[in-house]
Structure prediction request, 569 residues.
Amino acid sequence: MNPQLLQLICFYAFGFVTVAAALSVISLKNTVHAVLALVLTFFSSACLWMLLDAEFLALALIVVYVGAVMVLFLFVVMMLDIDQEEMREGFVKFLPVGLFVALVMLVEMVGLIGVRAMHAQVLGADPAAADGMSNTAWLGQALYTRFLLPFEIAALILTVGVVAAVVLTLRERRDARHESPAQQVKVNPRDRVRLVKMAAVRPAAPAALENDAAQEPRP
Amino acid sequence: MADQLINQVLWPLIYILCIVLPLVVAVAMFVYWERKVIGWMHVRMGPNKIGPFGLLQAFADVVKLLIKEVILPTKANRFLYYMAPLLALIPALAAWAVIPFSSRMVLSNANAGVLYLLAMTSLGVYGIIIAGWASNSRYALLGAMRSAAQVISYELAMGLCLVCVLVLAGSLNLSDIVNAQAGGKGLFDWFWLPLLPVFVIYFISGVAETNRAPFDVAEGESEIVAGFHVEYSGSAFAIFFLAEYANMILVSFLASILFLGGWLSPLQGWIHADAPDWINWIWTGGFAWLFIKAFAMSFLFLWFRAAFPRYRYDQIMRLGWKVLIPIAIAWVMVAGCMKYFGWVSIGAGV
Prediction:
């Protein structure tokens, strides 16, 4: 079996899994199952990218989307209380709108592919391989030299997004009580506990005990 | 054709078995060692009945777990319930593919080894979340929720620690990272010295990622019974156990490789003697050093468990987001300066 054939078989296998998982995302009834199918979709697209020698993108997809974003997604979906019947009613009602949007997108995509095909340029050799570097190293050098400004701007936009999300959802409660770890660390045992030294004095217990015993009902 | 099959399929399979089987035995012995160490720290004996010094206790436990029934809770999701232990175990084992045991012993000398490790360790949380959800139990779901939040928070700190190592070593390949720590100053050439705060943060995040005490809120025996695996019994529970301990050993190996020079000897460059190979490794380095370092690091897991009380949930979040991540970000800058101004020698000859 030659490597090209094996690669082709792998491509079709991963492609099939990707498409099947993507279809089940929108067709599964249970939302948690749908999210897990989405995870599988991401994972198998990462495998597809790996076949194309785009190792950095593939692993970044797994680390960022599968490992972090989808975990939070699952976190939220597991806590939702979804009424399946209600969802089904909406499906029929919005089906025409959905079909229309899907049709428009299809036409746009086919048009785009057609235009690109007319101006088809032969893809150059893999620049990373041409420079004799690993895909990750080449991508890093390109991002931090040629594309430094767009890269930094993208980072800035993401940071603004994070800050905005925090500001939008942060509701400060006046009556909430906070604890300050710095103050907690500084606590002195003497402020909290007072040790009292007393002489050991035998209380007048025997008499009390005798009284108790006298009051006890006899069996 | 037959040659190709043997070279490309059979040999890798044998190599994989050579890693996985000792790992499983190591997990069994590690469980025994943990119970023994914690016993000593509690001034108890620990297991001492089965076999000499109780050495066979772990195997007895394995046999007991394997012959027990796996119970499916009512209204549990059958497929996901049985799938979850596997989802926990597979990434824990797959991560071992890129670990270099010595300069020549590595299964896959991948270029993006560190990224691959990060990807695999981030997948392990699915086993826990799915187990918690599929069990149809409130305790299990609570454990899964806690675990998800905790693992994501500490993954960030862990990633930033790895960035520091990458900046200094200039490579994502684990063998290259170890070679970058070689030098004539022995153990002072390793990355633990220039990256000391990051080393500490990395290990703390590793403890949190593996859901071990004092970060074991996902299990929290005293609060939510056993968290995500409360409904699991028999072999399914054994697989969760195996995955957790395999991850602990993995984190110990990674800390040794990234910060303690992997297979390099702490005496490198101090002794230049000609000796037979079986003595030579003491100063030229060999896989034995990696195992010694990893054993020392994994001992810390047990020590932490015996010594520290469990963190409260909000304290875990505070430690991760407000203490570890800012320090790690600051140290990325420091590591950049070290590299730029050449304060640290990278990969000098011995």
DSSP finds twelve helices and no strands in chain B. Chain B has a mean pLDDT of 85.
